[in-house]
Amino acid sequence: MRATQRPKIKICCIGSVEEARLAVKYGASALGLVSRMPSGPGVISEELIAEIAAGVPTHVATFLLTSDTQADAIIAQQRRTRVTTLQLVDRLPHGTHRALRDALPGIALVQVVHVRGPESVVEAAAIAPHVDAILLDSGNPELSVKELGGTGRVHDWQLSRQIRERIDRPLFLAGGLRPDNVGEAIRRIGPYAVDLCTGVRTEGNLDETKLAAFVQAVEMASL
After folding, report:
1. How many domains does the chain have?
2. Within a domain: 23
3. How confident is the model at residue 149 (pLDDT cuts 50, 70, 90)?
4. Are 114 and 137 in contact, with CB atoms under 8 Å apart?
5. pLDDT digit string (tens) for 29-63?
6. pTM score, two decimals?
7. For residue 126, is it within any domain?
8. Residue 143 CB coordination number (10 Å)
């Protein structure tokens, strides 16, 4: 897929209605809402996820980050939270994406691929036809306690570029993005959207100064 001229911005680990409003104020087109995870930051209750999702403007997508891998559990989560998008942070059994499609028409599916080596290019290419977008992150689902996001680590952008060129789906880029490196990431990869959690936070809270700097860096890289 060809590069996007000006990538969209997704702010993840939204922890309150106030953080959601701040992210939207600075032009975020998507918000990431983290449900229970084996590790990592930003986890909030499904009740709070539903409250935040209900108050977001209609032009802003709400992503539920779910570590569940069984269709019934994921479907139930979406129906409880009423988000517009499911961000599937772990590998799913064969046929699960189709089951989600059938049960949740109109709900977008975004599959996370954790970029750990050349095998990630093959994985992304195989999954892409079954979802609406691919999101590249820097976790490690093979650990005894899985890392499924929020690591703050940068992965191999050369592999990310290969994936972007190979798949026919929008590509979200996550993993260690910050105001000082997002411009280079955009120029090297050409993602549809950039996504971050820790890079715009101070002591776990969304930092308006860092958020403004990140948005400015994205705009400058797109000129």
Report:
1. 1
2. yes
3. confident
4. yes
5. 999 999 999 898 999 999 999 999 999 999 999 99
6. 0.94
7. yes
8. 11
Residue with tokens 């090297």: 188
Whole-angstrom distance, CA of residue 35 vs CA of residue 45: 6
Is residue 55 situated within a structural domain?
Answer: yes
Q: Give the integer Cα–Cα distance in Å for 207 and 13.
A: 12
DSSP the chain: -PPPSS-EEEE----SHHHHHHHHHTT-SEEEEE---SS-S-B--HHHHHHHHHTS-TTSEEEEEE---SHHHHHHHHHHH--SEEEE-S---TTHHHHHHHHSTT-EEEEEEE--STHHHHHHHHHGGGSSEEEEE--BTTSSS-B-S-------HHHHHHHHHH-SS-EEE-SS--TTTHHHHHHHH--SEEEESGGGEETTEE-HHHHHHHHHHHHHHT-
Question: Which are the contacts of 198, defined by CB distance < 8 A and separation ≥ 6?
Answer: 13, 41, 150, 152
